[in-house]
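re: ur question from earlier - yeah i can do the single chain one, its not a big deal. heres the input i used so u can compare w yours
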Amino acid sequence: MLICYNLPILAWRVKNLCYIFLFIPFLVFSNEKVRVNIVGYPKLDNFSIKLNNNSILYINQQKIVTDKIEIFCKEKKVVFTKNKSLFFENITIISNGIVVFDCFLGEQDYEGNFYITPKEDKISIINEIDIDKYFASVLGSEMGGGFSFEALKASAIAIRTYYYNKKNHYKNSDFDINNADGIDMVYRGNSFATKKMFKAFDDTKNLYLVNSNNELALPLFHSTSGGIILKDQVMMSKFNENIENPVLLYDIDEKKNPLSQKSPYFKFEINFTEDSLKKIISSKLVLKRIQSIKLKYFRNTKCVDFIGFVENSENIRWLKAYEFVSLAQKNGFYNLRSIQFTMDKINNTFYFKGQGFGHLCGLSQYSAETLAKKGANYVEILNKYYPDFSIKEINYIF
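and the output i got, formated as tokens:
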């Protein structure tokens, strides 16, 4: 990946009338596209797509005229006009406007083109869209219009940087960024790309976070810190590693109150039966019973590194806490929001109480909001949560 900083501007005067400016090289093209791997819908048994009057639809390279299709994922079948159906190998939608995805979870509207193909036991959906619209939608999906503008600008820079860093990782894939659960960034389509989100990116145009080697950083961010920001390395820790200092900073104000305490997701409580726990971890651990649970914390924190499932006195099976939280959420237990928790067993029920929402690394969105309301600008916010990175103007990336 080539990046150019603060590119030179050549200028000269023509007939005493005006100046001509030449930028070398040119800026990133405004019509750049991004291919987003949409994973939410392929996990469903079926869903429908409502087309608009200008949409163009191809099923197995055959042009089909209809205003709606219904896709059955397990059967790899698509139903369209008057209950006609086909087993499909590929579906292409040139939206030419808005199309609406509809399932039992609700509706979401999207722009751009769509490429739908069967992939093993699921359906792959790639949405190709203008990158400006994608960025605005991600910011609106991750935070929303209720956040202060300086907090949004800080997040816009983090989102832009994250995208171009991860795009390089996916260079051998058929997508540029992955909208899977717990992977990359939240993307909910057209309705979330409001004018305020576009302006946050316009006002921070060409600004990125770079590391000490002037390479694009990978800035992590999450919803609610719960009072602590962990170092990125904790996400990949091993069982016997025992990281000496896992804490990047304590995310508190001058009165030692958590900066994210006004977040609606600051605290959580959730309980599990033994059967529900066995189901959650079944793809990783198969246990006949769960007698009790042990928690291995990161040093000097209430953040769980590994969670141990005690089958009997001779058998404790350990699972990375981040992985357990992800598995719980994929099984519908969304209120287990972070690894910062305690656990008690009462009778045959396991009670979890905790703080925070997300992986607790990098920028905390609700903490950034608190700082913005206290007068901090986007530079100060970024400097706080990314002390090892700096802000650079980059005019060209490829």
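The helical segments are 131-142, 149-169, 195-202, 274-281, 321-330, 365-373, 378-385. not sure if urs matches, ping me
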